[in-house]
């Protein structure tokens, strides 16, 4: 029986490309299932709704005759995020489901704020006016150097518009991630440079500890 019922929570996996977010999302879902949580929604950002997936295509596509401006890029990312929050995440949480997302607002703070150098105050006011106080309950940030992350994804062959950015861009994104993680206790840092099995172990430790602290004890079977 459940020792304590709690309502749905919003967990986010963050990190540079190649950090291992896809595997981590599945590891988190497995741990939640082992705790008796079966209604789990796993969206990705940008994306996760029909409209947001269309925006994702536009965001990732490079159109040389009409380069995407930084402002248009951030507005499209937020348009996709608002669609996802209002049409998928909030309804899921309201029915008691858990949401495990691949990227969320921290990505915008790191990529557009750090990578593109967009004004932090403007970014904060955009976020606050569009999302209000809506935030993840827990973020697992998978830390990896840009060099190692890019090396892992290189085997895919083709790169989208953002993946074509310079190493200097990804270094700024990484630096901003580290700064944001240091200032927010709801973000747990995982060493994603380790072999996959060790990364999964670290995720398990952090998540189990957080579930215990949140008052959720493993289902007794
Ligand atoms: N973006 C943005 O700029 N602003 C925003 O607000 C948001 C997003 C929300 C989304 O693209 C792009 O949008 C992203 C940021 C930007 N762009 N860039 N560049 P995406 O969804 O296509 O890409 P991604 O989110 O970065 O996913 P990814 O590249 O697939 O990374 P990943 O999911 O973290 O990696 P993975 O697929 O789990 O692993 C990659 C490979 O590494 C794979 O072969 C694994 O088997 C291997 N791997 C993973 N972990 C390990 C370990 N520990 N050891 C060895 N090998 C490993």
UniProtKB/TrEMBL annotation:
InterPro entries: P-loop_NTPase (IPR027417), Thymidylate_kin-like_dom (IPR039430), Thymidylate_kin_CS (IPR018095), Thymidylate_kinase (IPR018094). The keyword ATP-binding applies. Residues 13-203 form the Thymidylate kinase-like domain. It comes from the Bacteria. ATP binds at residues 15-22. It catalyses: dTMP + ATP = dTDP + ADP. GO terms for cellular component: cytosol. Phosphorylation of dTMP to form dTDP in both de novo and salvage pathways of dTTP synthesis. Catalyzes the reversible phosphorylation of deoxythymidine monophosphate (dTMP) to deoxythymidine diphosphate (dTDP), using ATP as its preferred phosphoryl donor. Situated at the junction of both de novo and salvage pathways of deoxythymidine triphosphate (dTTP) synthesis, is essential for DNA synthesis and cellular growth. HAMAP family: Thymidylate_kinase (MF_00165). This is Thymidylate kinase. It comes from Candidatus Regiella insecticola 5.15. The lineage of its organism: Bacteria, Pseudomonadati, Pseudomonadota, Gammaproteobacteria, Enterobacterales.
